[in-house]
Amino acid sequence: MSSSTEDAARTILVSCKQTRFHIDNPAYQELDIEGLNITVTSGTGKSGAKLKGKARAEGLEILVNGHLKLKAGVHYALVGRNGTGKSTILKAIAEKLIPGIPIQTRISILQQTSTDGQNAVNVSESGEASLATSSSRPLSVLENVIDKVTSRNDIQHEIDVLSRGLDDQVNNAFAPLRAFRQVQHERLKRELFEHDKDARLRSGARGMAARKALIAFEKKVAESAERLEQGDDKIDEGTLEEETLAAGDLLAELQSQLEPARISEIEVRARNILSGLGFPNAFLEKPVSTLSGGWRMRTHLASCLLQPTDILILDEPTNFLDLLGIIWLQRFLLQLRDAGPNPPTVVLVSHDRDFVNTVCQELIILRDHELTYFRGDLNLYDASIREKKLYLGRMKEAQEKQKAHIQQTIQQNIKQGKATGDENKLRQAKSRQKKLDNRMGMEKSASGGRFKLNRDLTGYHLTARAEIDVPVDEKGVSIVLPDAPDLRFPGPLVSIEGVTFKYPTVKKAQQAVPTVLQDIDLTIHMGDRIGIVGLNGCGKSTLIKLITDVTKPTKGSVTHHPRLRMGYYSQHAVEDLQALGTNESDLTALSLLTRDVEGELDEGELRGLLGSLGLPGRVASDVPLTKLSGGQLVRLALARLLWKCPQLLVLDEITTHLDFHTVTALADALHAWNGAILVVSHDRFLVRRVVQGEKESVDEEGDEEEEESSGEEDAGLKRRTVYLLKSGRMTVLEKGVRAFEDSLEKRVEKLLAS
After folding, report:
1. What's the pLDDT at 118?
2. What's the rounded Cα separation, in Å, for the pair 76 and 356?
3. How far apart are CA 415 and CA 425, in angstroms?
4. Residue 439 — very low, low, confident or very high, per pLDDT cuts 50/70/90?
């Protein structure tokens, strides 16, 4: 089976084997789809056309003979390196491009998008998705969320059509009939979309049946259009009376669906969800179109969480949430797992390790175009990989020694046999060579039992045992940061003394301008690790502007070391690079960095820097910025800072576009760096690792431990401090980010209880 869908300049091609579930099954139970192949091509043909041959071969393969298994009610995390196609797989599921997903399955998706949030959509069981409504005025945040759940706007449209027809009955007896037929015709056209999609998704006997059904339904729609255009003189009195009564009955039915009690209940739930995601009450009445990209994404997330669904897909849902919103979402999804007899299946992608570990029961690992499954969290998975590598590594090392010994005895036997004419020696050498050729490999099965050929190595093979395949490290690219140069004379890198900041008073404004920061004191020395946590809007960005000398304080002083080199990573760095790439389509990472350094470094040094950050060879020199993934752009943004060899790195939400493997690699690199670091982040793992110096591990029994860094490793570091910025004031968190997390847990409990 195969299918395709066109998205601007790309086409997703999907094929798979017949599943054990009947495709007509209207109720979602679970998915068990084998032989799944997903390829992305730059197709420009008509929607629905199947690309074959060379066109298909030139596509980017996402899955090859994969096995997709989703159990009802289970929470999954889809993990994999940046650029491996996680979002494409989620989109293929949501748009039901994969044959075997029942057509009536309700699927809601929050897509990872650009900053404007325009591409974030909710996909319902009909497969249609749109931010636009037929309302004459833009919907507010609250109205938009409720409308997505109740289809209130569509229902209201039908009510308006029928009401106008019935009201006009006095002047035109045929008006109710016309209105009734219009509503019916619009519904048929929406249903035609499903039949068309169903026909494109199937092949073979079922595909033929689906296409016949589509042709029959197209005739039905055509007949409806003819009835809609039928003249008054051709409509008999019996039909007029029957359809006029039907119009009244349908109007009453639609009005019952918008009963105030039902809408009121949904509105209460919508308000609670929006409040949990951080929406102030004043924002609820704002038109969605006036919101920034981050707030718009939260609106889409609220819609996904509110509407009833069978499969809930969340692609990086924490990107635009502060820690309070992340913890609230964690608790909401945990409650969703236990809610009702048929809880939805949840599939999410997130770089936030703590979020994944808390919410998800199983991992779906996308690697080398295959899907594998692991029951447990990321820490247990990392521990299992380490144990497997150690076990298989030792097995392979022992077997290599055994092979060397056997090879030596074979040579001795051959030498002795030929010298003395001893046929037994030659037969013995031949027997040992046979064992060496096809009986060396795995000694135990994956479950730890004795290896059996007919069970553990099915199919035709040249050897009697599977090769010992030691897993390759999955932590992604290795990130190496160049050392920070020493200062010629001692002193603090940055010193903030008694700083207060508030925006200038506007003469026309009647309200007093609030103070953003109040009496802030902070000193950063070489080797320090400073973390700043707080909710959105608490003043973190303002403090960074003061430190980076973008803004001057209203009161107090900010001084820098005379020889300080500072590297500032902005939370908008990726978006800025994307805009730069759009304006200059041929711009690559290497050409941009060459322009930045203005001859201070040669091409070899620049390639070395980019390579150390995970942008090697042609990726750096040949791939334009518009084709780089978010994670690759983060690395480029870091390279633009590090070539100057700064002594202080100011990092504002650096993990947003990274996969969790790269976050781990970056955290380890920052942890070992000799310069000073100021981190502003909602990622608890990053703050614990970089600022607090903790490294999570899993002991032999699977319990999480937190290990403090050794004194030798921290010899060059002077201070590790996590600050909480709240109400304009900064206080030290003695217990680190965990103390902030605990306080937010209590707030979330109150929110969920209300």
Report:
1. 39
2. 9
3. 9
4. low
Q: Parse the chain into domains and list their residue ranges.
A: 153-257, 379-456, 492-564+648-754, 572-646
Structural contact between residues 111 and 318, judged by C-beta atoms closer than 8 angstroms: no
Per-residue pLDDT band at 711 (split at 50, 70, 90): very low
Of 481, 469, 528, 463, nearest in space to 693 by CA: 528
**3-class DSSP state of 320:** coil
Q: Nearest CA to 329 among 297, 352, 359?
A: 359
Find the distance separating the first CA and the last CA of the chain, reported in whole Å. 49
Higher-scoring residue by pLDDT: 400, 305: 305
**Backbone phi and psi for residue 210, each to the nearest 5 degrees, phi listed first:** -65, -40
Give the amino acid at 25.
Answer: N
Q: How far apart are CA 669 and CA 671, in angstroms?
A: 5
- CATH code of 492-564+648-754, in short, is 3.40.50.300
Amino acid making up residue 464: A
At residue 606, does pLDDT exceed 80?
yes
Rounded Cα distance between 570 and 548, Å, is: 11
CB atoms within 10 A of CB 264: 9
The β-bridge partners of 364 are 78, 373
Quick one: how many helices (H) and strands (E) in the chain?
23, 21
282 band by pLDDT with thresholds 50, 70 and 90: confident
Other C-beta atoms closer than 10 Å to the C-beta of 447 total 7
Which tokens in the block code for residue 737? 């980010």
Amino acid at 619: V
| 3-state secondary structure at position 237 | helix
Which ranges in 229-281 belong to alpha helices (H)? 237-257, 260-276
Tokens at 753, concatenated:
């209880």
pLDDT of 245 strictly over 50? yes
**pLDDT: is 123 or 225 the higher one?**
225
